[in-house]
Fold:
Amino acid sequence: MTESHDRALPVPQIMPADDVERTAAELDQTWAEPGTLWGWLTAVDHKSIGKRYIITAFLMFVAGGIEAALMRLQLARPENTLIGPDRYNQLFTTHGTTMMFLFAVPMMNAMGIYFVPLMVGARNVAFPRLNSFGYWSYFVGVALLYVSLFVNTGPDAGWFAYVPLAGPAYSPGHRVDVWAQVVTFTEIAALCAAVNIIVTAFKMRAPGMSLDRIPIFVWAQLVVAFMIVFAMPAVATGSTLMLATDRAVNMHWFNPPEGGDALLWQHVFWFFGHPEVYIIFLPAIGMVTPIVETFTRRRVFGYTALVMANITTAFFAFGLWVHHMFTTPIPELGQSLFTAASMVIAIPTGLQIFCWIATVATGRVRITVPMLFLFGFIFTFVNGGLTGVMLASVAFDKQVHDTFFVVAHLHYVLLGGGVMPLFAAFYFWFPKITGRRLGDRLGKWHFWLFVIGVNVTFFPMHILGLEGMPRRVYTYLAPTGWGSLNLLATLGAFVIAASVLVFVVNAARSWRSGELAGDNPWDASGLEWATSSPPPVYNFVYPIVVRSGHPLWETTVERPVVTGLATHRREMLLTTTFDGRPDSRHVDPEPSIWPLYLALCMGVLFIGSIFSPYFVLGGIGLSTIGMLGWARQSTEHVDRELVALPDCRLVETL
Amino acid sequence: MKPLRADGDASRLPTVTFGPRSLMWWGTLGFMTIEGWTLAILVAGYLYLRQNYDAWPPLRTPYPSLLVPTINVALMLISIIPAKLAADAGRRLDERGVRRWLAVTVAITVAIVVLRWWDLWALNTRWDTNAYGSAAWTIVGFHTSLLVLDAMDTIGLTLFFWFKRLPAKAFSDVANNSFYWYSTVGVWIPIYLLLYVGPRIF
Structure:
């Protein structure tokens, strides 16, 4: 053993191009992920996982959209008989479950999994195998919901599964069990992604990337990851440990005759459910800032205010859940508190919008497709936000509770505040993922059809709600006079469908034969643009040293980097949490089949638990083998290491 | 593309670190937080259901027994010592010390898991008797799953240390394993007080 000190010493020196090329070639070999089926199943590269997450979540958006279109067809005219009440119940439950659990949250996580490491200058996420396990868990959840739907066992008690309707007395059979377990899988996936994003953002940032230089998108992902850590356990507890046990082993959490309480479900569900809205919304608005900066060619106005607004929103988001329960017997003081909190949360959100407006007003604006979607976002989202402030008032809320007014509000917020920035992000970052640009002409068609479609579909629902049309009913009578507005909304839904079709065609064509983009087609400032498009598996040949919040806009002649990471194994640089000083090297794990195997074991355990407790035992047994295999693989390579002992000595092992 | 300038050399930075310098410590902290928070939500549910009853435990339900749960709590507190000694040995790269103290930790952990079976029955109610029973069983049951998982983790690590040549990072894993064990024990103390002692008080 030998001892020495453990800090990197600066050695400024221009890197000869040959050295860079040789290092890249060595890294290509060490980090290679085979293009075979086995390679695909065992992949641990955050970009591979991120891409399949994005594609799966987008397919879920399409599936949820088809369900919505079917419901709109049924509601297009009064007393329609296209879809019966039972199928309609399954459709609206599956639509909500899909859009919230299988599209929106996974999609936002996926964008974080793909881009956070690139934006902070890292080579992978902190726990790549956990990342792979998260994706496969999510995939099991997707498969469970859709196989169940096609065998007429689709959940039918709403995406919120209120008891007593969802309890064993009123929902016999396995439909609600399917819902509870789908939720379990997506929660596992979200928690894996959250832990990964937190640790990546804390420990794997580029040298010099102190807290005040972290890109806003990464801040948003970080804040949301913390929200996931505190929100998701609530619904996992409610669905898996309370609802599923009430149904499977006769527990009484929600059974009033035995001292249970139906309202407890609402508390547990909405303690997750309201932060969920911001778990979708904050990453989306995190995407807005880099796009606005790039297309106004200036740093965003109010960086600190934006970061603080994100954090404040996250805190308030946990204090609003009771506004979903204003028609339940909640004490008046409680109602007032939650009304106030629901209004207060508009302040940090408004502040962010003013920051972007100030940036646009003082920058040199380039109108591109991503910018069009951002204008669409501000217009649509502000409308949804305003009806949100209306709904914060208890008296008003009681009048429109469970009507189409709420449907209109939530779709304005989620499509305006979530999906429009997401589309902007697709156009902005598609070149990085694929190396090719998305077509502009089809992009504009997509934008206009989408904005018009959203407004034509959902604006009439405000009026229908005010006229008293309830949600979640499969039909209505002709004398209500709701027919024409419903027909209009249905037409709007098909305009949205057309716009999404245009996007799919655009993406497929561009991926195959779109215009080549180059490393940084928009002349943007973030680190993700400092590597090739698409990036190599290891992202960066050398960790880039960052001296500002906009490293690619720095006017230096050379790009400073850190050398010295080994190329014979997957080494990554770790830095200190606050100021981003180089701290240690970490060896990234190699591809592994065990994450997929363990996710399938979880499938046996949780899906089997619906039918028999023996599956739980079987699942645990199979998982044990998987955990041992995983641990064994993680401890396979014995190499020479430099160990930093807690007493500050550095020891070299054999 | 701009020419690259070497601004620092990472080749003498450590490749194995302990505590907050290592990624695994942060990952462990993340899952400790998630699991601790899940227990906190269950406890909130337990207290919420308490409001539906005049008596707690409900009428005709006896108080939980104290003997086995108290012995088990004592055992858990004792287990902190070998876990800490194993972690300390890990921090010194002392392989023999790690093997010895991990083995002692495993022995106590297995005893704790076995006694947990009687902890469950010491609640003196069944999960399907009433909401009180459901809440208590779910909380103890969920903590048991953490206990079993942690025991499996410790057993696996011990077997590896005894029978396999391991990379140096395994020493850091030992420290993190103990870190996780402290939390599993730590969250149980308030739960023990609430579920087993609490009904006698409120």
Remarks:
- The first strand of chain A starts at residue 3 and ends at 4.
